[in-house]
Amino acid sequence: MKPEFDQARAVTQNRAAVIQFNKGARRYDYGKNNLLPNELLKAIEASVTASSCRERKQEFIEGNGLKDTGLGDSYINPTQTADDLIMELADVVGLFDGIALAVKYNAAGQPEQVFSIPFE
Known about the structure:
The chain is an alpha+beta fold. The protein has a domain at about 45-115. The protein has helices at about 35-45, 50-60, 70, 80-95, and strands at about 10-15, 20, 25-30, 75, 80, 100-105, 110-115. Helix 2 (about 50-60) packs across helix 4 (about 80-95). The longest helix is centred in the middle third of the chain and has 15 residues, at about 50-60. It starts with 10 loop residues before the first strand and ends with a strand. The mean pLDDT is about 85.
C-alpha cells in the first residue's frame, strides 16, 4: 500500500526559511513573502567566497555537456543548443536544487522546443 502524501500539510523548515504549500495560489511559498530564492541570490552575489563556490559548483554540474555531441549541438529552441541549456540549468540547479522548464509541443503532441524559465 502506497503512503498518501498530503500536499496541504507539506511543510519544510530549516534555519533559513519555512517552505509551505499555499492553497489559495496552488504553489509552494519559499520563506517570508515567498522571496527566499531572491534573498539567497543577493546574499551569494554579495560574497566573493560564495560567488566563487557558486561558479565552481556550476562548472562541476555542467561537466563537459552531453556525451552525445550530436545531441548536445542540436538546437532545442531558436537560440539554444542542448548543451547551452544544460549550461544555463547547471547554475540554477546549483543554487536552488530545482529547475523550471517550458516545453512547447507541435500539433502531433511531441515536444518541439524547450526553454528554461526563471526558477526564483
